[in-house]
Amino acid sequence: MKKYLLKDLVPLSKPSFRIDYEKEVNPTQLEAVSIQDGPVLVIAGAGSGKTRALVYRLARLVETGVPPANILLLTFTRKAAQEMLRRAGIMIGSQCERIQGGTFHSVANTFLRKYAHLIGYEPGFTILDRADSEDVINLLRTQLMLNEKQRRFPRKNTISQMFSKANNLMEPLSQVIEREYFHFYNDLKDLLNLQNLYKRYKGLNQLMDYDDLLLNFKTLLEDHLEARADISQQFRYIMVDEYQDTNLPQSEIVRLMAFKHNNVMVVGDDSQSIYSFRGANFRNIMEFPNQFPETRIIKLEENYRSTQPILNVANTIIENAREKYTKNLFTRKIKGPFPIVLAAENENYQSRFIAQKVLELREEGVPLNDIAILCRAAFHTFDLEIELGRCNIPYVKYGGFKFVETAHVKDVLAHLRIINNPRDSMSWNRILMLIEKIGPRTSRNIIEWMFNNHNPLNLSNYPKKGKFTDGIIRLHELTVSIAKNGLTVTDQIGLICRYYEPILKNKYDDYPKRIKDLEHLQVITGRYQQLERFLSDVVLEPPNESISGVLPSPSDDERLVLSTIHSAKGLEWNTVFIIWALEGKFPSNYAFNSDEEMEEERRLMYVAATRAKENLFITYPINIYDQLSGYVLSKPSRFIEELSSELVESWNLMENRENQIFNY
DNA sequence: ATAGTGGTAGTTTTT
DNA sequence: CTACCACTAT
Fold first, then answer.
1. Which end of chain A, N or C, is surrounded by fewer C-beta atoms within 10 Å?
2. In chain A, what's the furthest Cα-to-Cα distance?
3. Which nucleotide is closest, CA of A156 to its C1'?
4. Which residues pair with A624 in a beta bridge?
5. Residue A598, number of CB atoms within 10 A of its CB
6. What is the nearest nucleotide to A437, using C1' and CA?
7. C-alpha to C-alpha distance for A623 and A612, rounded to whole angstroms
């Protein structure tokens, strides 16, 4: 008798997917992708396809029937979130856009406005960026007359860093000062006083700084069960990218948001932790399984990005770390050019080398936007930018000063802020001081008068007259005209600019450039219907490009990338140049105080090196006089000195009449 | 008393 | 390029 084999039943519970996950991701990635419930920790080395894993998991969750609105994706920038959602959307169709995504700060902002009343705030509160909060601190410091003392009181940005460190580590200020700012320990009393005053000021004026967004959100979740339950139910699946760079308040927020279900997947790489100045600690990632007991841990170690010679360099850099990390990268791309280390005589030679090499690479077919110049600090590229300008090489710069941080843009924004939040006396102060004959004293008098007895927006009644009276009346007319209903944000900015332009021309010699910036700002507002949304976004998700990149034709998309290493996180290029690999620059002078900081510099170098796919150039100028330390810097970065000659090729720069570069 | 100005020194990394 | 201080002008 013939036997006929009956196949196993296809289990009903196994849904059929449109995407063939087995084919699209490797077995380890698949494991991460297909876990649906419970806490998961993915340790993902550089270039190991962690974004891919996240994107496929998003798609898979949606395919199994999880409503997109119930998924939250927390990333470092909104751009990263949007990119992942876009990719997931392409695979499975449109509904992915309903997945919520963004930074901790932007999610906190959304819910703090929704539940503002629960923690004693109005939904229209103003968010302070770093410069704003420094301004407030400065104002209060002057009022306490702390800067008139004989002894040296810390500067405003130092104070703000102290406060922020205390918030992000959730430690008392005294402890932070004792450990990291011991030389100011004598001022502890005044600093504590100032800290209290600062808190009170923010409460009275409906202000929150970056840290408040996190801490107030955490408090909201802790103290208000109904809010916590709402939020936890809404986000039944939470994913967090770059988990090694989250700090204590952030990990608490994750824990609280997930309290109903514990469906949390975090992805990170302990050897890429580069934000300890913001309170992040790479050991936190190891704490995750303690916070969520049933955690499954998955390690992604195969690198799909770089060639073996580049990985050899990267692995060596990280192997020399004091503390051992959890993995070692390998790749199947065995062959590739050796990374090149190049010493230049001075900074300008370094710049000229890069410009020339970039043009050569372009000739060979590498598009400009597949080449990046990475630096430790944004100002390290100043000389290079001049050289690129001379050679007509278009570029974008990421990191460093942003255009929303420039004085003229802040001035205009301050006028908008008082419409949205009339109690924001920091912005009032800023715009009043722009009026002629109004300085700190008069500004303070006016603000006190406004808040004590009168409607803040009715400025023109200010009883005291002076040379400034005309100016006050004009400001009042402006506030009335922009507060009218039915105006778009763009209209409002237009009115402000008309009022502000004469002031601007008076204040700056380079006003034509600044007027262009303001026009650019007006264009950006075209996307916004709500003033409040615009004001939050400007602080939380500012256009990442620095000033210099904004102006030259943005339509031209083939541009060389200049970026700080911090801003290069998560990105990759065919060719990467790491510049200023010099003791004192990279590692930075500031890192010589402690081992921990030096180790972070090392991880920074690791991050930089692992951005490269094919070509890696590490360059440094020698014999540079550093005004800051008073030393001549001439030692190549320790991270480069450690690399043996089998790992890298050394080049020397020589000049001949044609300025050609020869292999040494 | 308060506003405005000019000179000098110090400049990391980001939400 | 900005912060801070000292000085001058009103």
1. N
2. 113
3. C3
4. A633
5. 17
6. B3
7. 28
CA distance A607 to A318: 10
User: For helices A210-223 and A248-257, what crossing angle results, to 10°?
Assistant: 40
Q: How far apart are the first and last CA of chain A?
A: 81
Mean pLDDT, residues A348-357? 92
Query: At residue A624, what is the residue type?
Result: I
What mean pLDDT do residues A238-256 have?
94
Closest to A312 in 3D by CA, of A660, A655, A644, A534: A644
Three-state secondary structure of A516-536: HHHHHHHHHHCCCCCHHHHHH
Q: Please report the sign of the dihedral spanned by the C-alpha atoms of residue A388, residue A389, residue A394, residue A397.
A: positive
Q: What percent of chain A has pLDDT over 90?
A: 54
Q: Which residues from 543-562 of A have any strand B atom under 7 Å from their CB?
A: 544
- Whether pLDDT at A553 is above 50: no
- The answer to whether some atom of strand C lies closer than 7 Å to the beta carbon of A156 is yes
For A168-194, what is the mean pLDDT?
A: 90
Q: Per-residue pLDDT for A190 more than 50? A: yes
DSSP class of A633: E
A551 pLDDT exceeds 50? no
Length of chain A: 664
C-alpha Rg value of chain A to the nearest Å: 27
Determine the pLDDT at residue A147.
66
Integer distance in angstroms from CA A432 to C1' B4? 15
Name the token pair of A408: 């003229």
- Residue A59 near residue A34, CB atoms below 8 Å: no
Query: Using the CA of A541, which nucleotide's C1' is the nearest one?
Result: B15
> Tokens at residue A361, please?
């690479």
Residue A265: per-residue pLDDT? 96
* Look-up of token digits 């791309």: A333
Instruction: Please tell me the predicted confidence (pLDDT) of residue A406.
Output: 86
Average pLDDT estimate for A294-303? 93
Residue A628: is its pLDDT beyond 70?
no
Averaged confidence pLDDT in chain A: 88
Tell me the C-alpha distance between A608 and A314, whole Å: 9
Identity of the residue numbered A622 = I
Q: Where is A560: in which H helix or E strand?
A: strand A560-564
Query: A157: which nucleotide lies closest, measuring CA to C1'?
Result: C3
How far apart CA A144 and CA A244 sit, in angstroms, is 39
| Pairing mode of beta strands A395-398, A371-375 | unpaired
Torsion angle, alpha carbons of A496, A497, A502, A508, to 10: 120
> Please, which pLDDT band fits residue A457 given cuts at 50, 70 and 90?
low
Q: What gap in Å lies between CA A388 and CA A390, rounded to an integer?
A: 5
pLDDT at A239: 96
Q: Which of residues 356-395 of A touch strand B (CB under 7 A)?
A: 376-379
Give the whole-angstrom CA distance, residue A370 versus residue A571.
11
**Burial (Cβ within 10 Å: 0-12, 13-18, ≥19) of residue A427:** buried
Q: In whole angstroms, what separates CA A610 from the centre of its chain?
A: 19
Distance between CA atoms of residues A452 and A469, nearest Å = 20
